Amino acid sequence: MAQRVTFRRRNPYNTRSNKIKVVKTPGGVLRAQHTKKLATRPKCGDTGVPLQGVSALRPRAYAQVSKTSKTVSRAYGGVLSANAVKERVIRAFLIEEQKIVKKVVKEQTEAAKKAEKKTSKKAKKN
């Protein structure tokens, strides 16, 4: 005859937080062993990719672990993935370059206009 197993805690419902695993003790008795919820890996804020080098723990457990297991030694380490940071750096660089190019083009057009005005004044005098 199969042995029945009941919950050991006060919650009698089969909820996500009340999962059990049936374990046979050395005495041959089946007991309910409550299992903890599995932790999901932290994800990148931009791309949604799981972060490498950051331990996957339940939220409260991060308070007990060292800083090295929560972050990566990089800008935005433990928050954004390496590719996302690389993309941000490249985007910022290109935006700055674009501003410089715009400024140079504007200066060149202004210089060309001044040169045209000077040549037109000389042509009028002659």
From TrEMBL:
Residue ranges, annotated region (Disordered): 31-51
A single MF term (Gene Ontology): structural constituent of ribosome
Protein name: LAMI_0G12134g1_1
UniProt KW NAD keyword: no
Keywords for the protein's UniProt record, in alphabetical order: Ribonucleoprotein, Ribosomal protein
A GO term from the CC aspect: ribonucleoprotein complex
Family classification: Belongs to the eukaryotic ribosomal protein eL34 family.
PANTHER family in the cross-refs: 60S RIBOSOMAL PROTEIN L34
InterPro entries the record matches: Ribosomal_eL34, Ribosomal_eL34_C_sf, Ribosomal_eL34_CS
Cross-referenced Gene3D superfamilies: 6.20.340.10, 6.20.370.70
GO biological process: translation
